[in-house]
Structure formats: structure tokens, C-alpha cells
Inverse folding.
């Protein structure tokens, strides 16, 4: 009986060890607030019109997830809420890949679910047909465009790279030129100055802000949160299907919040409550 007990214990330890290799630890990185220049210079020939004008922004400190939300993490949400997974992509649902085919609205729902699960105050509520965001709450949320770009550029530790963490795209990103048409395991390229992975490439990441191509011309530089309303939400960072110009931290695209693509995912942010 003693030998059987030892064997069962050994099996349990092996199972726990194997489980640890199938998922990555969920971790948040604190980004110290500060000032930075958002957008691209008017003389930058690679920049698009909606990246201009370049303007100074001041941000409070916040936390951001080291990795993009994975398929495994999304499966826990789906199981708890008794939902269905989206239609599987051609590469299938592999646990350590970034979740994709997620709408902005689904990402918002995930944030509130995870907040409640961890005993935090949910950030999002409905205000008529629109979502309202309580930025003072301690729950999970999507980054603002400014928070996302600041983190992608390395925050106070920035070295001024062209991409998020390097001037050499292949070092830090899965993109159209090296991905073989699929996303890859999160964190399998080099991190940026803040220790964040895949801020460039792998999947595009939803942000909180409504999109307006001219908004930078009037944006308030103190913790900006985007226009009051709009038709599309901002998406950042490029994906496994992106050309290099779309992988620059200042690049912006937009999509209706109820729509998605096989290269859209997200990562999480938390306000640092004073």
C-alpha cells in the first residue's frame, strides 16, 4: 500500500509539472507613468495621416499583462460563462497561442468576468447602448491607445526603437514575413524594454478608444482616453499577417466593436489605484 501511495504521489507531481508547461503564468507588469511623444513626426515618410500630429502625453502609472490573452485563458472564461468558442481557425485552438477572432465587446466581457473572479471591482458598465469605463476601479480593462503606445515604446525605459523592443523586426515579432501564416506561442520572441512580449506582431490588440483619424489634433495630453463616441474602436500592434509598416508602435487601425478577424486579440491593463 505504501508503494502504491508513493506511486500515486509521483503521478500527481508529474501531472502538475506537465500542466505547468502547457500554460504560461498570468502576470502583470507595472508601467511607471511619465511623459512621452505619441504619434509620428510630420516629416516621417512611413507615417500615415492618422498618426499625426506628434504630441506630448502624460500618463499615470498602470499595470499591463506581460503576454497577450491566450487560448487557454479564454477557454476558462468560456467554460465559466457556458459560452461557445468562436469558429476555429485553420491552425486550431492551441492553448499557448494568443486568442483571436475576438470582438471588442467580447474582450470587454472577459475583463469584467476576470475582475469578478478575482474579487476586483469591474470596470465596465452599460450606459444605454454604450459602455462606460470607470478608470478609478481596480479591475481589468483594455488599455487606452496612449497607454498601449507608451508601453509598446518602452515607457520610461525606452531606447527609441523602430518597433517594440528592437530595430530588427524578426527579433521581437511574428509578422507576415516570418509567421508562415499563423500566430505563434506567446512570448516566443524577445521582450521589449519593459519586459512585454508581442507588443509588435502575433495578433492585433484591441484598445478602449473610439477611433477618429483627426483626434490627435485636439487631444488632451493628460491621460487621454479618446473621443467620446464613434463608429470604430482602435486596434494596435500588427499581427502575424502584417507588413512591417503596420508593426510600428505609432500605427493605428480601427474596426467596429462588434466585428473581428482571425488576427485580432487583446491584452489586459489595470489602473494603479492611488
Amino acid at each position: 500500500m505504501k508503494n502504491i501511495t508513493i506511486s500515486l504521489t509521483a503521478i500527481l507531481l508529474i501531472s502538475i509539472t506537465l500542466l505547468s508547461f502547457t500554460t504560461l503564468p498570468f502576470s502583470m507588469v507595472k508601467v511607471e507613468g511619465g511623459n512621452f511623444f505619441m504619434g509620428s513626426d510630420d516629416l516621417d515618410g512611413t507615417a500615415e495621416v492618422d498618426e499625426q500630429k506628434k504630441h506630448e502625453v502624460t500618463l499615470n502609472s498602470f499595470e499591463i499583462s506581460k503576454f497577450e490573452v491566450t487560448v487557454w485563458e479564454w477557454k476558462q472564461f468560456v467554460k465559466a460563462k457556458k459560452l461557445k468558442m468562436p469558429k476555429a481557425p485553420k491552425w486550431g485552438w492551441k492553448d499557448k497561442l494568443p486568442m483571436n477572432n475576438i470582438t471588442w465587446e467580447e474582450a470587454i466581457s472577459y475583463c469584467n468576468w476576470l475582475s469578478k473572479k478575482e474579487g476586483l471591482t469591474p470596470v465596465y458598465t452599460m450606459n444605454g447602448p454604450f459602455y462606460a469605463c470607470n478608470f478609478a476601479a481596480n479591475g481589468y480593462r483594455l488599455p487606452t491607445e496612449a497607454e498601449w503606445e507608451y508601453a509598446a515604446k518602452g515607457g520610461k525605459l525606452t531606447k527609441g526603437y523602430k518597433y517594440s523592443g528592437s530595430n530588427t523586426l524578426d527579433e521581437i515579432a511574428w509578422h507576415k514575413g516570418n509567421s508562415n501564416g499563423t500566430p505563434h506561442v506567446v512570448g516566443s520572441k524577445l521582450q521589449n524594454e519593459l519586459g512585454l512580449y508581442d507588443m509588435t506582431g502575433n495578433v492585433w490588440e484591441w484598445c478602449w478608444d473610439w477611433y477618429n483619424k483627426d483626434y490627435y489634433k485636439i487631444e488632451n495630453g493628460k491621460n487621454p482616453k479618446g473621443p467620446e463616441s464613434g463608429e470604430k474602436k482602435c486596434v494596435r500592434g500588427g499581427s502575424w499577417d502584417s507588413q512591417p509598416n503596420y508593426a510600428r508602435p505609432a500605427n493605428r487601425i480601427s474596426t467596429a466593436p462588434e466585428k473581428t478577424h482571425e488576427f485580432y486579440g487583446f491584452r489586459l491593463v489595470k489602473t494603479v489605484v492611488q
Q: What stands out?
A: The CA atoms of residues 139 and 214 lie 31 Å apart. Residues 2-22 form the longest helix (21 residues). The chain has a mean pLDDT of 91. The first strand starts at residue 28 and ends at 31.
